Amino acid sequence: MNALATLPLDPQTLRADFPILATTIHDNVPLVYLDNAATTQRPRQVIQTIVDTYERRYANVHRGIHWLSDQSTDLFEEAREGVRAFINAPAREEVIFTHGTTESINLVARSWGDANVRAGDEIVLTVMEHHSNLVPWQQLAARTGCTLRHIPITDDGELILDEFDKLLSPRTRLVALASVSNVLGTINPVEEIVRRAHSAGALVLVDAAQSAAHMPTDVQRWNADFVAFSGHKMLAPSGVGVLWGRRELLDAMPPFLGGGSMIRRVKVDSFEPADLPAKFEAGTPPIVPAIGLGAAIDYINAVGLANIHAYEDVLTRRAHTVLAEVGGVRIVGPALEKKAGIVSFTVEGVHAHDVAQLLDRQGIAVRAGHHCTMPLHKRLGITATARASFYFYNTLDEINLLGRALADAKHVFRRR
Ligand code: PMP
Description:
Helix content is 40%, strand content 17%.
């Protein structure tokens, strides 16, 4: 049997759909794109949908009493239905288009937070959160006087659930956590966290930015209350994101931004908000990015999330092996069975930015720094990591190349 036949998907066939992956950079070096946790690339099918929409079916949505606006509105609402099905949400109206995960979380912190959180209440976060799931809650705490608590992690980057239990109390109003850490790659036990949070009477917001494109999102199985994610991390254009929330919560929440589209009626001194989802979609929404997200979801569904997850596991295992062979590389994060396709590491004697720069010379794109997780890096006792993050169009050859390039980089530094 050839090696390919044993893989859950054929990356070479899929790569052909991604024009940018055929690019050469610097002096004719093939691009090796391993920065997928920052943003993924787009397949032709998504790019073509964007072009077709602008060329034939673009107008503003919901306001036109004209043919073109109806076309555009139909595409926009089909995309919403695509998102609903993708995350198994009970109703289309619960799917709010935002501009990204960051805005989705800010929406909840402002709208639900200001209306429901008081001095003395507590919000539970984790030490591994991205700044966009920390700062909005810090701002809420400054406005309301609520207290923030953080679930600690083991040295391997796993949440300590016994400590979580100790943090929960009748004062806990909300638990907000990432389904997958953007640095450690840890797959957090969302269902278990939700179960424990709910039994303490708290709501749960899941930051699914790093899982939505890589493993199934089932809001009903998770039993979460809010789920946020970004289009650009899942083959769609930047500028669109999603907030899903339980209808009864969204119905009771005041609007986040004020302006056009989010109202039913306006007088000079007051307004009546529109129904869901318009209530939370003030102004002209990200029309074409949302339609692109619909096309991206079709693409992901065709590849299959189970195949994607299984294939990323193959890549991640190979990455762990080749990095171990380099020597002097410390990978942060849990054991392979508990992590997604994100491998962050330090190299003895070489700063992460230098690692990234030396890899870049060989065409390999990785990210270096704190990855918007300063508290996590402080907990790990390091200032920066280099991060390689994978998607289904990456190949085992690319991972092997990463290993060779890292060995070269170490060599360069030893000579200095
Ligand atoms: N949460 C996590 C876990 C992330 O990885 C990111 C993006 N790096 C965000 C939130 C923020 O997403 P966006 O910049 O698309 O709003």
